Amino acid sequence: AIQVIKMYVWERPFEAVVQRLRRDEIRALRGSAFIRSGLFALRIMPKLSIFASLVAYVYAGNALTAVKSSLLSLLMKELLPREGSVTISGTVSYCSQKPWVFEGTVRENIVFIEPFDENRYNEVVRVCALQRDLMLWPNSDQTVVGERGVSLSGGQKARVNLARAIYRLADIYLLDDPLSAVDAHLREVRHISRYSSSYDSDVDVTEETIETDQLLEETTQEGPANSKVGENQNDGTIGFRVYKDFFKSVNNGLFVVLVGLLLLAWQASSTGTDYYLLIWVNWEEKFSGTPTATWTTDDHILLYSGLIALTLLLSVNSFAFFEMCLRASLNLHTSLYRGISRATMYFFNTNSSGRVINRFSKDIGLIDAGLPVVMIDSLYFFLELAGIIVIVSLANYWLLVPTAIMAALFYALRYVFLETARNVKRVEAITRSPIFAHTNATVEGLTTVRAFGAQRQMLSQFDAHQDLNSSASFLFGAIARGFAFWLDLICALYIAAVVFSFPVLGTEIVSGNVGLAITQVLNLIGMCNWGLRQTAELENQMTSVERVLEYSRLDEEKDTTKPAMEISQNWPQEGSVEFRSVTLRYAPHAEPVLKGLSFEIKAKKRIGIVGRTGAGKSSIIQALFRLAPIDVERGTILIDGLDTGAVPLRRLRAAISIIPQDPVIFSGTLRSNLDPFEGPGQPDDGRLWAALEQVNLKDVVANCAGGLDAKIVEGGANFSVGQRQLICLARAILRDSRILILDEATASVDPETDNLIQSTIRDHFRECTILTIAHRLHTIMDSDRVLVMDAGRLVEFDSPANLLRQS
């Protein structure tokens, strides 16, 4: 869907939607953060308890259906009949209308769960016309197709999908219009009305009823595959720059400084309170009740009360700190989305959606909830540790020696722990991405998986991904337990050193000093165990910030590839298109998929683009929209005589409309799918209804609950494939561009919908330049000229009549 978003220049409205949803999420998180902040503020409770006890002691002494596909779903028992029963005897093989290709090699996609039989495999490859593709792909049938078959063209995915169904030895083959996306000379049969003579019987389905069942005699992407890029795993410590960037993401330096000062003031007040307690106890021991005392017990209670009140007041630092972290998280999420939405298509072609989802779910989740707690724990630990060292040193300065030794041991132990734990945590994060990717692929092809009975195999693959991730998680837990053991041992030795230091060193023993020193180091054993683990966990969780920052700084699409030029407001007026020696690569070092391509299209002409699968047809679209880089030193694309490399990217894409091969429908309302922009200057309801009427969807939408505001489920599943394509046509009508591209737009629809789309295009876009990539020859027979592609080069460019005569 990201490619459609880029082509329609919808990044900003989608970003606005994401930010609105994110603000709602942050609003909910603030409630839990408030509670957590309150719990941190309760750190002063022990002091209040001591104060109350001492005073008491002193004074006391989150429809529409595709009917034909539903029939197959009934046969496969994906749907349950309202009445009657469905019985199937024998094994079933299924080929879906929308090709399902999972992340793996071409061979793995064809063989799937069946045992490999070389003779049968070679025969299937031959009958599905994949031999030439195997020769063109860099690693033949071991080429990795990428997630959703991103490195394959639509026709290649359709034939791999069909090959999987044919390869399986089954009793029943259920084929849901499998050849709709295949070019004409590779297809011996097409939609049912065109190849029904190949079958023994025909079932005509209207609405949800099978009307007749009788004998027919009675009723007469392309280019080289992209290799999957491994997910980046950083090494070494989390750099200071990551922490700096986290606090910079608050976007308010004064607020960050204020929070820091509040933390320091709170610790100073807390340590001062403890130290004053030492003074008070020693005073009670020496001067209480003597006539020479200049202070009274009431004076000490008043001063101690003031220190307690100040510490309690400064506990507001935890509320400020959590608010600061939520602001940082909100801004990091925004920068992550912007980085993703502005990334080049090469990034999406070489990285699975699991990696992106991993960062938006797990990593952002940790930054939202886990990181603030761990970070404030770590800050409190270091501040309180400093306070304890100061107090113990004041009680007995000789204790600085074991304190220094303990600090050195802690540092060494923490260093060893972090060196291991940090990398294990990174491995855990990276092994989590394949879980998301595998789950997405399984859900998308769930019907095929069930038809093949491959649930157990898919579950085994999921378990393998999960086991790898769980082993990393378990290893991290085991390392943390070992770390805790050695911390406890060091703390116990330090406590022993403090306790025996007073009698061994022979210093004057003052009960207040001894009591305060022992209580402080007893607190230290629990605090060090918890605190050092939290500081280590802080560094581990900062890897999530590091990963989010990595994706927020992806290489962006260049706004212009040549010096910008002045462009008129109504550009393009005519819609002429010219390619001059255009060479295009999908990756910097990949083989070119367009090789010195040159042709000229006059304004308002209808051009058909044909060629075998992988010939470079869709690459022409990639070049027009600047979705892939062209060789700017030698190649040029002109629209109305203007070099598109000098046109800002958003302006260029807004000037071109496209109806893609696979209709992309987003969750939300029908209105937002037709035009997600809001505010003045956007289409009113009258224009939206007029566009729907032109594509024969007005009555369908009017019967939906909500009309234009009818809810659309994920992927537009409550509309048929044909209806989804008509929605895409309505989008193009609303954009009213001078250049329209049809990327095999009718490949997956029935002939009736095909005819409707063709007639609408002829009526509404008669003043536009139209480029049609087609598999069905009849869709381009009324074109002014036909451009024939082969292996990235122009072979012929002439009128349909002349081409037919030459052939």
From TrEMBL:
Primary localization: membrane
Domain ABC transmembrane type-1 positions: 257-540
UniProt GO MF annotations: ABC-type transporter activity; ATP binding; ATP hydrolysis activity
SUPFAM superfamilies in UniProt: ABC transporter transmembrane region (SSF90123), P-loop containing nucleoside triphosphate hydrolases (SSF52540)
Chain ranges of the ABC transporter domain: 29-254, 577-807
Highest taxon listed in the record's lineage: Eukaryota
GO cellular component: membrane
Pfam families: ABC_membrane (PF00664), ABC_tran (PF00005)
Keywords assigned: ATP-binding, Membrane, Nucleotide-binding, Transmembrane, Transmembrane helix, Transport
Protein name, UniProt field: AAEL013833-PA
Species this protein is from: Aedes aegypti
Lineage: Eukaryota, Metazoa, Ecdysozoa, Arthropoda, Hexapoda
